[in-house]
Each structure stands twice: as C-alpha cells, then as structure tokens.
Amino acid sequence: MYQAIPYSGGARPWLRPAETAAAVAVAVKTETTAEAAPASRAEDEEAAVERAVSESPVVVVGRRACCLSHVVKRLLQGLGVNPAVHEVGDEAALAGLVAPEEAAALPAVFVGGKLLGGLDRLMAVHISGELVPILKKAGALWL
Question: What predicted TM-score, i.e. pTM, was given to this entire model?
Fold first, then answer.
C-alpha cells in the first residue's frame, strides 16, 4: 500500500495572503524587433526542412498536431519504414524545396530527397503497388 507524503512544515507555499500577491510585480519581456522575428523563424524552419530532407531517406513534413501527418506516418510505419517527421507552422517552410508550379500541400512526403506528394498521392502510389519499390530505391526499405 502506498503512503502519503506529508507536507513539510505544514505551510502551503502556493497559498499567499492577498496583500503579498498584489505586491508581486510581473516582469514582461517585450521583443523590440517584432517584425524580424517571424521572418527569421520562417527561414529557420525552411533551413531545418531542407536539412532533414537531405539527411533522411523518408521525411514527412506536416503541421503541428495534424491528424493527416499521423496517418502518413502510420502508413509508412506499417510498411516497415521509420520516417523522419518534421513539424512546421505552414507551407512557407516548403518554399525552397518545391518548384513554384508544383502544389505544396501539407503533409508533404519526401522520398529520396524528392517530393512524392501529399497524403492523396501517397495513398494512390501505395494502392497501385508502386510505393514499396520507390522506398527500396531510396534506401528506406531493405526487404
């Protein structure tokens, strides 16, 4: 049976008297270059995606907490591939990797450093039986 750990000293530090709570000042850090920060974040995301695509045979680029990215990842894992998953804020991170005439929808799947497509293209290639040879050629599967 588990035993409860008693409070030390009987005092509850999280309960402050009202006068002390009002006297506490909160420091807020303001950013002086508010416009430069989003641009540098987008450039950092783009560079990180480029690096991930060049280092891994299979990379899934998707939005944070996106269910479609999860579906892509589970499909590839079911085939025996361990894809690198890179989460981004929006499609701007794909700007340097995808030609302007190609549609860059998230989640985007890169196999062997080249854009395979989104979830619909991945499913179509899988159903037609072409996905396993593509993964073998990229070095992601050793079957």
Answer: 0.65
